[in-house]
From TrEMBL:
Highest taxon listed in the record's lineage: Eukaryota
Organism, as annotated: Dreissena polymorpha (Zebra mussel)
The keyword Cell inner membrane is annotated on this UniProt entry: no
Gene3D superfamilies in UniProt: CDGSH iron-sulfur domain, mitoNEET-type
Protein name: Iron-binding zinc finger CDGSH type domain-containing protein
Domain Iron-binding zinc finger CDGSH type: from-to ranges: 14-53, 56-90
Length: 120
């Protein structure tokens, strides 16, 4: 049996997106890769070729504001669980320890080994 590799996403931002106007029963695609620059927290297909897939979820309860994770570190996707408060340190340690960090190049859109993305 093939061993699955943990993929590390890019960080959209270190804080949740406050989303209004979701309706009970509505299905959305949450961005899991962190590359969706124009539609965060929703998927725009930027993950193609990275190994990530969007996560479909259905709104189950009515509320005025939904706090959707944008750091991609939550343990309760797609909802924010506060992981963004410790994520900067965790992500930087992972990037500094990345076995591929010397090979990060500007034309690579995401290092799934550590979550590195080029500065645009």
């Amino acid at each position: 049996m093939a061993e699955s590799k943990t993929l590390y996403p890019a960080v959209g931002s270190y804080g949740p997106c406050a989303v209004k106007g979701l309706k009970v029963g509505e299905t959305k695609k949450w961005c899991t890769c962190g590359l969706s620059s124009k539609k965060q927290p929703w998927c725009d297909g930027s993950h193609k070729g990275t190994g990530f897939k969007s996560m479909k979820f259905t709104v189950e309860k009515e509320q005025e504001v939904y706090y959707i994770c944008n750091c991609k570190q939550t343990k309760t996707p797609p909802y924010c669980d506060g992981s963004h408060t410790s994520a900067p340190e965790v992500v930087e340690k992972r990037k500094n320890a990345c076995a591929k960090k010397d090979g990060h190049v500007k034309d690579c859109k995401l290092c799934t080994n550590c979550g590195w993305v080029p500065d645009f």
